[in-house]
Amino acid sequence: MKSKNTLYFYNSLINSIFIMFISLTFVVFGSMICWAAFKYEDLFLGLIGLFLVGLFTFLLYRIIKILKESKPLLILSDEELILNSRSKKPIAVKWVDIKEYEIQEVNLYRYININLYDEEKYLACMYDNTKLLSKVKKSMKSHPFTIVWGQVKRKDRDILVDELDRRAFEEEEIAVSGERLYKYHDESKKLSDQLAVYHEERKEYSQVNRKYFLKKYGQSALWALGLTILFSFDKDGSSWMYLSIISFFIYPFAKVIYDVIFGFRYEFKMKKQTHLSLYIEQSNYLFQFLVYIFSLFLAPFGILYLLIRAVYRRIKKRKNQS
Fold first, then answer.
1. CB atoms < 10 A from the CB of 39, how many?
2. Which among 130, 121, 126 has a CA at the least distance from the CA of 98?
3. What is the C-alpha to C-alpha distance for residues 301 and 255, in angstroms, rounded to an integer?
4. Which end of the chain is more exposed for a tag (fewer CB within 10 A), N or C?
């Protein structure tokens, strides 16, 4: 019989659809490579195409299977937290065995690592063979007990955080009146507090102020210098040099609208990574370069945003004073 206190958390549908779209795109792309390889009789190109088609077809199949089965990602019962509940060997972790939660960012994915008092006990259950366990522990780069934050439905995340904290770290007290009260026996371990600090740091990082503009003008100077040197070798590059000089003055305003919509969140996530792929790191410079090149088109939107923000703050200040 299922307890009324048992909670079930499912995969994010939006995240699954996004992965399906990416997978389908690479399947089509791989098929086009195979067609080109067949046409030009290029075996190496054909193998690359087949690899892409095979890999992303399998990923597409897995996502469709998960959506079709509609099994929960996580199960929270009165006694334990069940991870990987869809797998053949789900991991059932007793609440009393949880030492702390730890937020980790790797390659733009956020993980909630679950540190246990005795991890070896659970690893031994996962891997029956002692030699295999020893090899796994040596080769294991990722945490063995973790929740992939992006897989949980956005609307369920606050509930999940509260329940993870409450079930692992709360102690029950019975009041004189018979009312049940709760207290945390160790506030420092709460996942909710860690996330609150994370969001506060991101808010601080996302400030558009004097320091922000000085930093962006510094970046703009580097881009302008690099492009000026590059176009100086081209006889017909004078028009591009003029565009580069104009972009130097308006780039910070173009960067404002980019950062507010996307850049702040992306760059802050990169800053918090414990491990970051070189390609992801390079992508940030690519985005900055594209914003610089298209500064002439983006800057008016940035200036408009700053004007609207200034008017809004002025109105808000008057309301507070009255």
1. 8
2. 121
3. 10
4. N
Burial 135-161 (b: 16+ CB within 10 A, else e): eeeeeeeebbbbbebbbbbeebeeebb
For residue 162, how many C-alpha atoms fall within 13 Å in the half-sphere facing its CB?
7
Interatomic CA distance for residues 286 and 292, integer angstroms: 10
pLDDT in tens, 165-190: 988 887 544 444 444 444 554 555 68
Q: Quick one: which of 90, 21, 31, 32 has its CA closest to 59?
A: 21
Label residues 55-71 b or e (16+ Cβ within 10 Å = b): ebbebbeebeebeeeee
Place of tokens 């390079």: 282
Q: What is the pLDDT of residues 108-155, one digit of tens each?
A: 788 899 988 888 787 777 665 444 444 544 454 567 888 888 888 888
Secondary structure (3-state) at 99: strand
Distance CA 290, CA 285 (A): 9
